[in-house]
Amino acid sequence: MRVPPIQSSYIAALSKLHEQQLERLRIDPEIEKQYDEIRLLRERLRLALSRKKLRSPLSAHESRNLSLGKRT
Asked: Origin, by domain of life (predicted)?
């Protein structure tokens, strides 16, 4: 079955447009690397904050004594 020339060029144009759209969606490897580093730092920060929350907070009195160098 022979494809008419107009239909053939239409299909080729659609294919080229599709390739261009896919290229636009592709992420630059350097940007992807930086994004991965940001995600890793966010995860580390989240873990550090959750560990900090697990520790019992000092009372105002204990905190003041520590800043003055006194032991309770």
From this structure: Bacteria
Give mean pLDDT in consecutive 10-residue pieces for the chain, a chain of 72 residues. Answer: 75 88 85 94 93 72 63 52
* pTM, to two decimals: 0.45
- Asked if residue 72 lies in contact with residue 62, where contact means CB atoms within 8 angstroms, the answer is yes
Is there a domain that residue 25 lies in?
Answer: yes
Positive or negative torsion for Cα 24, 28, 31, 37:
positive
For residue 51, what are its two tokens? Answer: 């560990």
Could you tell me the residue range of the domain that residue 41 belongs to?
Answer: 5-67
Q: CA–CA separation, 57 vs 66, rounded Å?
A: 13
In a domain, 72, yes or no: no
Report pLDDT digits (tens) over 45-59. Answer: 999 998 888 885 655
- Number of compact structural domains in the chain: 1
